[in-house]
Amino acid sequence: MERAQVSRFLIVALLSSTLASGCALFGGGDDESAGTAGSSTSGGFDSGGGTMGGGGGLDSTDQLATGAAVAELEAVYFDFDRSLVRDDQKPKLHSNAQAISAGSWSTVVIEGHCDERGSEEYNLALGERRANAAKQYLIDSGVSASRLDTVSFGESKPSVQGHDESAWRWNRRAEFRVLR
Amino acid sequence: MMAVLGRPGARGLRASYVPWLLAIALVASAANAQRRPPIIIENPGARAYRVAIQEFRPSRPGSESAAAAVEQAMERGLAFAALFDEVDRRAFLGPTRTPPLDRGDPVVCPNWSQIGADALIQAEIEEAGEGVRAEFKLTDVSRCVAILHKRYRITKAELNRMGHAMADDVVAAFTGQPGVSDTEVAFISTRTGAKEVHVMNADGSGVRAATKNRSLNLFPGWSPDGDAIVYTSYRYRVRPQLFLLTRGERSPGRILRNLDSSRPLYRGVFSPTGDRLAVVMSVDGAAEIFTVGRQGQALKRLTRSGAIEMSPSWSPDSRRMALVSDRTGSPQVYVMNADGSGLRRLTFNGSYNTNPSWSPDGRWIAYESRVGGQFDIWLIDPEGRTNTPLVTHSRSDEHPSWAPDGRKIAFASTRRGRSDIYVIDINGKNLRRVTNEGENTNPAWGPYRR
């Protein structure tokens, strides 16, 4: 009986030509070379080890640098899950607005950041709100909106490492970077 | 479609990109006589099945190491399923090694049922050139019928996959639903320095970096065919945009480039049909959910509250979506139709509920809820009638992602300090840590592989 079963085996060979046939997903080449960071190509992922492409090589530049930090522009800090500019932070923003108006930087990038708690995705949106709150304050203080740009890093660029409020309070912030 | 894609025009694929030549074939067995598996698990995890495993037979000299490797991989796959107890070989009354299967010797079933086995596993392995072939047989010894009899072929480099595929088929023979040891989990890890996309086997083996751009990469998500991973990266102008990885030599890179690149694209999630993506894009300073075709066409806005709307998770039938909105002042889980209509709030417990993940069978939405100062994974049904914690712990458990069998969930947890990926059965049993290096977050469990 079992011999009969064995003889019924059907071997379905999926030809390797199928593998090579490929499939257009989202179209072709990269345009990352236009960026300031990151590799210009990307490898695929595969079940064998070591098949990833990508830049790889070590270099010393900060891949997440949006501009240069300058002493004139101080970071401002926020309460947990809040994007309202705190009263105690307003003098710093006012001073930043004056420095930007007086400065010659072409663009000031406002980075929004969060502490590590909660959903990373939600923290991206919250960081954006913080950056926008700081931006609006600068605009209300007379800075031209065209010189301001925003980006949120959520919880991914903490300024202080740590897992309690002593670190978190410094990580819920908006920072300022300049392009000259 | 196969699991490996080349770029159009790519000249063939190197051998290492041709993973599993694979040919899996047919079942057979007494399947003709008995049309359904004899044992159906009503209550997963309630009972362990006892299996006797005869040593895998190398069908010719030189195949010994392959036979041992496949056998061990199958045993790891069975252990991952956490449904089986293996009978100690020293208790065997019958032979400890698989006899030549082509001789057709009948299994002496009483020898196996007498030692408490529910089933007997036998296999014969033959290494031939770059390939490995296997004949695999699972016998229900109480009824004395083969409930699985199958041949496998694979490249020598992927012996583990063969063993895992056998284990997953054994799970299917017992439960009607294949196991998930031969599936993959994508996640974000800092083990190479920056937050990079990594892919591993579901049991934590075979970790490899899928990005090495040293920028910031987040939220990997699978295409339903398992051939592509969409993810968020800051590698283009240090702004969040969506990128694609494919199995193969070179990936397309940034996608949806015809959308306004000044708008942050925080996340992309493939629809279950694979032809569209739900994307989280910022408009006027607030994240909103859109759908868009894979080529960036037919952009459609689904939410427009001005509050934060994000974390879309499709229902398996593509007709609905779970999402997070903070329109009431705190992030909560909602459900809406896939065209944006019929929005309804689902969670009311606590002030911070995020990261919904709709189960493959459609019956549950897993999400994370802030309880006290930390997060737990909860399950709620899409109508909001039942809401129950999956697992509670004094440290945070976040970002649930369902296995394709709907029986396990992967999540990120800081329960040993730094963040690791864990998997757990949905009955709260068989917690297992599957990462051990760096900070590991954003698990995304891939589909069944073909």
Structural account:
The complex is a heterodimer of chains A (180) and B (450). By secondary structure, chain A is an alpha+beta fold. Chain A is 29% helix and 13% strand. In chain A, helix 4 (120-140) links the parallel strand 2 and strand 3. Chain B starts with 22 loop residues before the first strand and ends in a 5-residue tail after the last strand. Chain B contains 3 helices and 31 strands. Chain B has 2 domains: 25-175, Rossmann fold (3-Layer(aba) Sandwich); 184-445, 6 Propeller (Neuraminidase). In chain B, helix 1 (64-81) packs across helix 3 (159-175). Mean pLDDT of chain B is 89; it is low at 1-45. With 450 residues, chain B is mostly beta strands. The chains are: A alpha+beta (180), B mainly beta (450). At the A-B interface, helix 1, helix 2, helix 4 and strand 3 of A face strand 1, strand 7, strand 10, strand 12 and strand 13 of B.
Set out the fold topology:
The complex is a heterodimer of chains A (180) and B (450).
Chain A: H1 2-7, H2 16-21, E1 76-77, H3 90-102, E2 107-113, H4 120-140, E3 148-154, H5 165-171, E4 173-179
Parallel strand pairs in A: 2-3
Antiparallel strand pairs in A: 1-4, 2-4
Helix pairs in contact in A: 3-4
Chain B: E1 23-24, E2 49-53, E3 57-58, H1 64-81, E4 84-86, H2 109-113, E5 119-128, E6 131-140, E7 145-155, H3 159-175, E8 184-189, E9 196-201, E10 208-209, E11 217-222, E12 228-236, E13 239-246, E14 253-254, E15 265-270, E16 276-283, E17 286-293, E18 300-301, E19 309-314, E20 320-325, E21 332-337, E22 344-345, E23 353-358, E24 365-371, E25 374-380, E26 387-391, E27 397-402, E28 408-416, E29 418-425, E30 432-433, E31 440-445
Parallel strand pairs in B: 2-4, 2-5, 3-5
Antiparallel strand pairs in B: 1-7, 5-6, 6-7, 8-9, 8-31, 9-10, 11-12, 12-13, 13-14, 15-16, 16-17, 17-18, 19-20, 20-21, 21-22, 23-24, 24-25, 25-26, 27-28, 28-29, 29-30
